[in-house]
Automatic annotation (TrEMBL):
InterPro entries: FliE. Belongs to the FliE family. The keyword Calcium does not apply. This is Flagellar hook-basal body complex protein FliE. The gene is fliE. It is found in: Bacterial flagellum basal body.
């Protein structure tokens, strides 16, 4: 993978968002199974929910850093 290519960065962002969506879908599916009594081990749901929460927190942190960097670049041009 080339580190200087914008297409690679874009695909990395897209993959990260897809992984986030998958983690949230898994947690949602396990929550439904837990609510309907079909989940045999509630720990599976707790782990999936924690993973989805951490992935969301990471995504928000990356977004905030990207916005901060963009704003700093815009200030430099003014």
């Amino acid at each position: 993978m080339q580190t200087g290519s914008g297409a690679d960065f874009g695909s990395m962002v897209a993959q990260g968002l897809q992984k986030l969506q998958n983690a949230q879908n898994t947690a949602d599916d396990l929550a439904v199974q837990a609510a309907t009594g079909k989940l045999t081990d509630v720990h599976d749901y707790i782990i999936a929910a924690t993973e989805a929460s951490l992935a969301t927190s990471l995504t928000v942190a990356v977004r905030n850093r990207a916005l901060d960097a963009f704003n700093e670049i815009m200030r430099m041009q003014a």
